[in-house]
Amino acid sequence: MLFNSIDFAVFLPIVFVLYWFICQKNLRLQNFLIVVASYLFYGWWDWRFLSLILFSTLVDYSIGRLLKNEINNGKRKLYLWLSIIINLGFLGFFKYYNFFVHSFTDAFSFFGKEIQPNTLNIILPVGISFYTFQTLSYTIDVYKKKLEPTKNLIAFAAFVSFFPQLVAGPIERATNLLPQFYNKRVFNYHQAILGLRQILWGLFKKVIIADNCATYANIIFNDHTDYSSGNLILGAIFFTFQIYGDFSGYSDIAIGTSRLFGFNLMQNFAFPYFSRDIAEFWRRWHISLSTWFRDYLYIPLGGSKGGMKMKIRNTFIIFLVSGFWHGANWTFIIWGLLNALYFLPLLLRNKNRLNTNNVAQDRWLPNLKETTQIAITFTLTVFAWIFFRANSVHNAFDYILHIFKGNSQVVPFSVPTELPFLILMLLIIEWLGRSSQFAIERINVLPKYLRWSFYYGIILILFLFAGQEQEFIYFQF
């Protein structure tokens, strides 16, 4: 079920009414409703994969209970690794089986020996990378005794399957989200209005920015040999805004929807395209995944406590694993490696924690130095996104080659005049709201007539300039 669909527009109010008007006085009933609604939401794509969520829920709930009652460190480690192997085993099978088979075959072909691979027609369950990491956070935190294992199976099932963020995050920590299912929730009008505001802005980013940019990015990337260098650069920029509008738009809708039900999710994007270096970019982009890798992989590997060699090794591991997490394609590995190389000079000069505040703090505009830094970081990011978007490594390098050498025969290409203005509108509003959790969080400081004019203006834009409906990019991850 897509957030920007008629189905969801009908589904959400029904669940909201049942939740607050029928189940309000019974916390257990509220949690049970969330489980039912979440399974319906997820099963809308393919009901067969509901068994995977249920199995993952039961496995980690049971292991959590075993960890609570076990004092032997050897057995505790055994239970932890059992959870890791089962969860990552399912993820690896559905997501990477054919990738490893093809890579193995290609390696033999390179040395002149042909083999016939046994591939499977595997359908990737939507959101499996997200809810797998979410359940793992529970087991790992219980193992580390950072979290008391739950006795409440319904609450735990609601935590695992919570429909607003089930299929594309944010990847919530059990320490943050799970306790919220234990506490009585009272309807908060202010939080609900804030949630609706965030949903509206998320829809603008998805329906107006991402879906419109996707149309032209797809045209250029699918036939890149037909277009001029300028158009190829434009295609990469369109994808840059497509993936941001798509993914951060999803996160805004997910967080806003959660607010309607009395839950607070972590911020997942913090205006990353205003970053002054690549380290700042990764502190602001897909925050829930970046911090997950930091806490559950980077720090256990030694983090930054060792010498420079260990820091470099751990940094490259994190970026390569992050690339691999995104998909079973060498393009994602190279994308991760490229970002690691971007990060390396900052690490070597110990400047990777230099820009931790908001750019142009307490000022309307950035200075020349900040503007230059933002432009350089944005350019590097656009270049890396080419590998992320390309269908293969060969296509990515060919795309880049055609940028530099140009094309002798060029197919005419044009975009509607309103699209650049809509992107500019996005940038201006996000710049003005960059110190908030989301761009229009504090629009309530404006006079009422301006505030409502803005809301109606956004709604009108949604109707007039909606792009062709596209599935959220991160559903495939």
Topology:
Blueprint: H1 6-22, H2 27-43, H3 50-68, H4 73-110, H5 128-143, H6 153-161, H7 174-177, H8 189-222, H9 229-260, H10 278-284, H11 287-298, H12 308-326, H13 330-348, H14 368-389, H15 393-405, H16 418-432, H17 448-464
Helix pairs in contact: 1-2, 2-6, 3-4, 3-5, 3-6, 4-5, 8-9, 8-16, 8-17, 9-14, 9-15, 11-12, 12-13, 13-14
Number of helices: 17
Order of helices and strands: HHHHHHHHHHHHHHHHH
Helical residues, percent:
55-70%
The dominant shape is: globular
Overall mean pLDDT stands at 90
Low-pLDDT stretches: none
Number of domains: 2
How many β-strand runs? 0
Task: Report the span from N to C terminus.
Answer: 16 Å
Task: Please tell me how large the radius of gyration is.
Answer: 23 Å
Largest sheet: none
Q: Structural class of the helix and strand makeup?
A: mainly alpha
Strand content: under 5%
What does this structure look like?
With 477 residues, the protein is mainly alpha-helical. It contains 17 helices and no strands. The protein folds into two domains: 179 residues, no CATH class; 209 residues, no CATH class. The model has no long low-confidence stretch (mean pLDDT 90).
Which descriptors would you attach to this protein?
477 residues; single chain; mainly alpha; 2 domains
